[in-house]
Amino acid sequence: MTQSFEIAGKLPANALTTTNYGICATLNRKIVVKAPDWGYVPSIRVSREELKRNYTPRLQGDIPAIVMEFLCDTEAGEYSNKPTYPPGKWFYYEQVLQVPNYVIFEPDTGVIEAYRLDDSGRYQLEPPDANNRYWIDQMSLFLGIWQGTRENRTGYWLRWWDQQGELLLWGSELVIQEQQRAEQERQRAEQERQRAEQLAAQLRAAGIEPEG
C-alpha cells in the first residue's frame, strides 16, 4: 500500500504509514494498543526516533486518516464493538480514536468494506463509485481492488488510483513500463533506419546519389 503511494510523490515528509504497528490510546486509565494491517497518519509532530515501537494519536500527531484490517480468520474481530477492556477493534477505531475511514478487506474473495465516520461519530458503510472504488478524501485518492500477480501471489490486491483514475504503480510495474518504452523507442529507431535505407536505394536506382 505504501510503495506506490510514495513513488507517486503523494506521501508527505511528515506523514506516517503503518503496517502491523501499534497505535496506542488510554481507555479508563488503561493503555490500549491495536496494530491495524495498514494505516496512514497525515502528520506527526515528533521525531521518528520516538515512534520506533508505537504511535499515540493526538499526543504525537494526527489521528490516522484511515486504518485497514485484512480478514484472516473466522472470529470477525474486526467487527467487534466490545467497549470493555480490551476493547474490540471496531469500538477502538470508531469510539476511542475516531478514525475517519475504516476498511475491512477479505484478500481471498476480494470483498472490501469501506466505512466512514458520520457526523454522529458512527461508522456508515460507503457505497463504491461506478468503477467500484472508494474516494478517501484525506488522501485525495481512490481505493479499490486490483486482480493480478505480485510477489508470486495471484489474487486480489488493494490499490490506489488518483483523481484522474490513473493507477498508482508499484516499483516493479514502473520498471516494466520503462523497459516497454525503451523497446518501443528502439523499434521506432529501427523503422526509421529501414525507411532511410529504402529511400537511399530508390534514389540510387534513379541515378541519384543520396546526400550524407
Task: Characterize the structure shown.
Strands 1-4-6-7-8-9 form a 6-stranded mixed β-sheet, with no helix packed on it. By secondary structure, the protein is an alpha+beta fold. The protein is 24% helix and 30% strand. The protein has helices spanning 2-7, 89-97, 171-205; strands at residues 16-18, 22-27, 30-34, 38-41, 54-55, 66-70, 101-106, 111-117, 123-125, 134-136, 141-150, 153-161. The chain folds into 2 domains: 1-169, tt1808, chain A, CATH 3.90.1570; 170-211, no CATH class. A hairpin with a 4-residue loop joins strand 10 (134-136) and strand 11 (141-150). The protein starts with a helix and ends in a 7-residue tail after the last helix.
The end-to-end distance, rounded to whole angstroms, is 54 Å
Q: What class would the helix/strand composition place it in?
A: alpha+beta
Number of strands: 12
The major β-sheet equals: 6 strands, mixed
Uncertain regions spanning at least 5 consecutive residues:
none
Number of domains: 2
Specify the helix fraction band. Answer: 10-25%
Strand content: 25-35%
Short structural summary:
The protein has 212 residues and is α+β, with helices and mostly antiparallel strands.
Features:
tt1808, chain A, 212 residues, three-stranded mixed β-sheet, alpha+beta, 2 domains, 3 helices
Topology:
Layout (H helix, E strand, L loop, with lengths): L1 H6 L8 E3 L3 E6 L2 E5 L3 E4 L12 E2 L10 E5 L18 H9 L3 E6 L4 E7 L5 E3 L8 E3 L4 E10 L2 E9 L9 H35 L7
Parallel strand pairs: 2-5, 6-7
Antiparallel strand pairs: 1-4, 2-3, 4-6, 7-8, 8-9, 10-11, 11-12
